[in-house]
Write a structure and sequence with these properties.
Blueprint lengths: L7 H33 L3 H37 L3 H28 L1 H6 L5 H14 L3 H16 L4 H23 L9 H26 L7 H5 L3 H33 L3 H17 L1 H19 L3 H28 L1 H6 L9 H34 L5 H24 L4 H26 L8 H17 L1
């Protein structure tokens, strides 16, 4: 096992790819955290309403993530053989789908904002604040879609710094605008939750502009004539749809499942949901490093498979499958030790109820125990299986464990057995993560996740299978 980690080139490449992406996610999470911390000064109802709209936005982001993941599958393998023409075609196809989704969510948010909020909670204060926030923040959705697709392509071709720089600038801008617009500083009007939403929307569009301007200066892969991106053929679209559909379905159904969980928890009381909002805000920070590692794994494994270096891809996948859960255990210990300090950060203005704070501390403990179990399927399904070209099997695991096991178990716990809030929250993790670990580890060990999309990859895999058969 020790020899598995002595490859200096592996560490050099992994760190080179993981650190900028992790830093970008840190900035993106700080973006969300700043909103949550500043809004918490407005009280529990404001915190809860913003958290509820955050889950609506999260659902859109999960669907977009499906298209981004499919983009990464193709782009990273095409990057392995330096096929820039087909990478641009994939970018164009992905952009069309992503824009359709973002237009749909924007339209619903502007047409029936109160209906969206009512899904979570019907408290009058929450409805008023949530509606006000949603109508303003929905203008960021199209910008988010554009940024996500462009960043996915840039990462796949190992240009990980530009998305990081854009995130850094927009995060600082968002925090500054949050402070100015929420509390009426530096000549701005005091707008409360609407100010937080406007700050998010402005920052999101500045991020798009920044990526495009710097790309023009760099003359990188995302800059070219429209025909280079949209002159794709039916076969390319069909191939993309075959790979993308399971991933989008996976992420969309997983996002919908999380949405259902949050509807359940929100209807148990907005003070409880404020506790969930606190946990989710911390969760975004906790996952930063793991998103970076997952992105590095996806690019490295996908590139190796695309170029026919199957043995290298398998070896790297084993390395990442050990590194991620090991780091997750360290993170869990940190969460348990500092849980009260972490929750206390969100009560700087002393406006959060005692019930919310106590519940959040308990949720931190539950999350800490679940965290390593959640990270094993994450690295295998999202990073390894998908980059290997297998977008179907992981989707089956995710959807089955979520919709056939965890969601029904949580509903039964809440509505049949009248379980306390924290018990229902624990049930959600138990019924999703344990079976998913069993399925994903078994599939990983079988090597059936290796499904190249390039000729070089297919030839390399056939050779690899013959070599394995000969060894046996």
């Amino acid at each position: 096992m020790s020899s598995l980690f002595k490859d200096r080139q592996f560490w050099k490449t992994a760190v080179k790819l993981a650190v900028p992406v992790a830093f970008q996610n840190l900035l993106t999470s700080s973006y969300s955290l700043a909103d949550t911390l500043l809004v918490s000064n407005l009280g529990t109802a404001a915190l809860s309403s913003v958290g509820m709209i955050g889950q609506w936005t999260f659902l859109m982001n999960m669907i977009l993530l499906g298209f981004c993941s499919a983009t990464g599958v193709f782009a990273s393998q095409f990057w392995g053989i330096k096929d820039l023409k087909r990478i641009k075609h994939i970018c164009g196809i992905s952009m069309m789908f992503a824009l359709f989704v973002s237009f749909l969510f924007t339209g619903v948010s502007l047409a029936v904002p109160q209906l969206v909020v009512e899904i979570f909670n019907k408290d009058e204060a929450v409805l008023a604040l949530g509606t006000e926030y949603l109508k303003a923040v929905s203008f960021s959705y199209i910008a988010v879609a554009i940024t996500n697709i462009l960043a996915s392509v840039l990462r796949a071709v190992e240009n990980v710094k530009l998305p990081m720089y854009a995130s850094g600038f927009t995060t600082v801008l968002n925090i500054f605008l949050d402070y100015c617009m929420i509390f009426g500083k530096f000549g701005f009007s005091k707008m409360g939750v609407r100010g937080a939403a406007l700050a998010t929307s402005i920052s999101a569009w500045v991020g798009v502009l920044m990526i495009i301007v710097i790309s023009v200066i760099q003359k990188n892969i995302i800059i070219g004539k429209p025909s280079e991106y949209f002159n794709f053929n039916k076969n390319e679209v069909a191939s993309y749809v075959r790979k993308a559909t399971p991933v989008v379905l996976n992420e969309g159904m997983w996002g919908a499942g999380t949405f259902v969980y949050n509807v359940i928890f929100a209807n148990m009381g907005y003070e409880y949901f404020s506790a969930v909002t606190i946990l989710r805000s911390f969760e975004n920070m906790a996952l930063v490093m793991f998103f970076g590692i997952g992105s590095a794994a996806s690019v490295m494994i996908g590139k190796s498979i695309g170029s026919g270096e199957i043995d290298k891809a398998v070896t790297d996948s084993k390395r990442f499958s050990v590194i991620v859960p090991s780091l997750a255990v360290v993170m869990s210990v940190f969460i348990v030790i500092f849980r009260e300090n972490l929750v206390g950060i969100f009560n700087m203005g002393s406006n959060i109820s005692e019930l919310t704070l106590k519940t959040a501390v308990t949720l931190m403990i539950i999350y800490a125990f679940a965290f390593p179990l959640r990270m094993i399927p994450y690295i295998q399904i999202v990073a390894i299986f998908r980059s290997g070209g297998d977008t179907v099997t992981g989707a089956k695991f995710e959807i089955f464990c979520l919709w056939a096991l965890s969601v029904p178990a949580t509903l039964i716990a809440v509505y049949l057995f009248k379980a306390p809030f924290v018990v229902a929250f624990a049930v959600m993790y138990i019924f999703e993560d344990i079976p998913k670990n069993i399925f994903s580890i078994s599939h990983f060990l079988s090597n059936k996740w290796i499904k190249p999309v390039t000729k070089e990859g297919i030839d390399g895999y056939e050779k690899y299978k013959r070599e394995i058969a000969g060894d046996e």
